[in-house]
Design a protein that fits this description.
The structure is a homodimer of 241-residue chains. With 241 residues, chain A is an alpha+beta fold. Helices cover 43% and strands 21% of the residues of chain A. Chain A has a 4-stranded antiparallel β-sheet with strand order 2-6-4-5. A 3-stranded antiparallel β-sheet of chain A has the order 1-7-3. In chain A, β4 and β5 form a beta hairpin. In chain A, α4 runs antiparallel to α9, α5 packs antiparallel against α8 and α6 crosses α7. The longest helix of chain A has 26 residues. Chain A binds a DNA duplex (30 and 30 nucleotides) through α7.
DNA sequence: GCAAATCAGTACGGTAGCGTACAAAATCGC
DNA sequence: GCGATTTTGTACGCTACCGTACTGATTTGC
């Protein structure tokens, strides 16, 4: 494991794992644990949010839908976070879509159970507050990065972020999908990815990108990855392993 | 007033104005009301936040500082909002800078008074929760917009956002400053601004941009302005005037 | 095992925006 | 009012990325 690598255990979502025992038991009893297939839409824009999702493996993507049918990723949610953060703020719809990016196992809780839990006990509220702060930092850095950095660097950042959120070194992602996430042409992704492959930093076959040399990948990206990672570590100290 | 135009009264910050009388009196007693000069830095990255600021007139800008000394605006705070939103989440530092963009009058409250207020009473917490949700929507749309829209459109959006936050139609902004905010060259701003001026949509002399035809300006921008405005209006219903 | 579908490689002209530079115009300090 | 400073106008070659399109490679479905 690289020194800067933050990885989930694949056993439990971080927010849930950090709950004290009694709160954990209480919240877990409200959750359903389900497999989530790629491209499942878990939140539609401006539609009452049905569930909050806590990924254990796999990850979700928060996506802004543009009028011209364009789509741009705003942020990524993995084992460290939750979809439906609006619930924390007492809001039950959002203007962005949330879609499964990498299939995995997730716990989900209904809107009503979530609102009841948040209204009656403070443990989860405290953790979600920390997560909200991190989320704001993340997407703030995303605004800046999308404004000024090249596709090469943004691709590397995106691979690192996803690598942090899956188990293993294989990311089930097509160039087409990456293009949507980075808001660039599919062809641009192919060019950037080919460059990384030629440098033996990644390898890929159809729909599967393998991270070969994470250290070099970190060197190939912009500062934004490090910023984003640091904002997690400030607030979400990783349990020793 | 244009049909889509949301403007402050210049008398009070919206978050404070929406407080019930007793809470308003209590919070106001904790605030200091001060003039704020352009370019005053109110929050430094990773430094303990001293105050939360509630603009009454003028506005603040949240800016990401890049390692190469580049700067990119993440979002804008005016009469509808507050700097130091982290306090809501129990966090006392942030990774972005907050700087005065347009001089004005603001109320400020110390970290300790703010934390005490948030911990002991719920009225302000409720409003800040709504504002946090709006803020997240705003910067999410900013991620998308910076990713895909042209400088022309982004400039128009930025002028509209600022116009919504100042009293009158004169925005005291130089091209140089706008360039930082949009993360583009100063020369690019001049070209885009000149085009708007030729169309009689704006006028400017050194450091002062005047909005002449707001309706056309709205037509010249991308959907992102409308999205951002809508997210305010959903949560912050404007008092009738 | 073969057809259909998906995914990846590559190319080419077009253009938005960059870095840089320099000069003109407006404003400020005194 | 005059020099110094700030702000704006404009130009030029350059690069990254776009839109589009076509081909080839791999996987999937049956």
């Amino acid at each position: 494991m690289s020194h800067t690598h933050v990885r989930g255990t694949g056993q439990e979502n971080w927010l849930l794992a950090m709950l004290p025992d009694d709160a954990y038991a209480r919240v877990l009893a409200l959750c359903e644990t389900i497999p989530m297939a790629t491209k499942t839409i878990v939140i539609e824009p401006d539609v009452l949010i049905e569930y909050a999702h806590f990924p254990i493996t796999g990850c979700l993507s928060v996506v802004a839908l543009m009028k011209d049918r364009g789509r741009v990723e705003v942020g990524t949610v993995g084992w460290e976070g939750m979809s439906g953060l609006s619930f924390l703020h007492g809001v039950e719809t959002t203007r962005t879509q949330c879609i499964t990016q990498v299939a995995g196992t997730m716990r989900r809780i209904t809107r009503q159970d979530m609102m009841t839990e948040l209204g009656s006990h403070g443990e989860l509220v405290g953790l979600l507050n920390l997560y909200a702060d991190v989320w704001i930092s993340q997407i703030g850095q995303g605004v800046a990065c999308n404004g000024v950095h090249s596709i090469d660097k943004r691709l590397a950042r995106w691979l690192l972020i996803t690598h942090d959120r899956v188990i293993g070194d294989v990311l089930p992602l097509t160039h087409e999908f990456l293009a949507v996430m980075l808001a660039v042409r599919r062809a641009s992704v192919t060019v950037a990815a080919t460059a990384l492959q030629n440098r033996r930093i990644i390898d890929y076959t159809h729909g599967k990108i393998t991270v070969l040399d994470r250290e070099q990948l970190e060197k190939a990206t912009c500062e934004c990855y490090e910023m984003q990672r640091a904002s997690y570590e400030k607030l979400l100290p990783v349990t020793p392993d």
